[in-house]
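Write out the 3D structure for:
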Amino acid sequence: MLEILFLLFILLSSSNAAIQDFCVGNLKGPENPAAKAGNTSNIINAAVAPAFIAQFPGVNGLGISLARIDLAPGGVIPFHTHPGASEVLLVLHGSITAGFISSANSVYLKTLKKGQIMVFPQGLLHFQVNAGGKRAIGIVSFSSPSPGLQIEAFAVFGNNLTSALVEKTTFVDHAQVKKLKGILGGTG
């Protein structure tokens, strides 16, 4: 009996969560932005409403975070990575073609319908595209409260690296590099 009590004490007292890891929501505050449809009137016809540690401190210390994605017809979440987390996509409405490229350059691609999921390993390039003619909605969950984000096109063309170096390192011609830098806010 003493061993059982000792084991129970160890199990109950070994939580990694501390009191400062939790917060009480402001019930009089505005509605959670992840509950509303996102504004998809932009270059990618998509919106992301994150619930990362910066937007939702309640995930501090829990090792998780979420985001809602809205994809209008023709919408795309372009190639990107999350250096600090793996990701799981759950389709709530519509259909989404999702894929990632492994470190061996193998492509994993699937068109998901309502209720289906796909997992994206940490740090790998991946994307989501609306696969239908109506709005698609998904929830993505991450294995970190702060997964990080690097969008490939912005990383390559939305910076101040000289066009000559971008051309040399990407094998993209001068005119296209200038065009993409102009669209994505790059200089040089």
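The first helix runs from residue 2 to 13.
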